[in-house]
# Entry
Amino acid sequence: MKEMRKLLGKESGFTLVELAIGLVIIGLLIGAILGGAAMINNAKIRRQVKDLQGLYAGCYTYFDKFEQLPGDRDGNGQFDADSTVWNDLQSQNLAQQTRRSPFGDTYAWGWSSDTTVYHKMGNYVSVNMPPDVARNIDMQLDDGEYTTGSITASADYTGSGRIDLYYFID
Ligand SMILES: [Ca+2]
Ligand SMILES: [Ca+2]
# Structure
């Protein structure tokens, strides 16, 4: 105990004021780091929204020109495969340079006929992301509900694990 008092007392070289200043500085640093992380996350969400809107717009620019969706070579209104959609978009310079989401996953095109998994039938672009980000995007571009509207998801937005977001093109 004597040793402890020595350590905290004048003999240690730190006064209470100095310790308090140290704690304030640590607090400010933590605040700056957390604030920076929030800013980065917001920038990623903005990029994510822009990517999805860009991919959506690319499909309709293609449709305007050819009167059918990219990657629908048999003209039945459904994407044939992920690769054919990318190839057709790329042939018209409509595919964005990066196919990777700011949250790490790659965008994938598909056709859903299963309303229990996708909550909707139709052509979609899907991408995996944290659930709070998915909710944010659904609120910005749609109705904020994971089972309804033009944006749906593989699971509830209140969970903790990453989920698949489906952005329907039609
Ligand atoms: Ca097709
Ligand atoms: Ca929705």
User: Anything to note?
Assistant: The pocket of calcium ion (ligand 1) is lined by residues 72, 74, 76, 78, 80 (CB under 6 Å). Residues 22 and 155 are 45 Å apart (CA to CA). Strands lie at 108-112, 122-129, 151-153, 163-168. The mean pLDDT is 93.
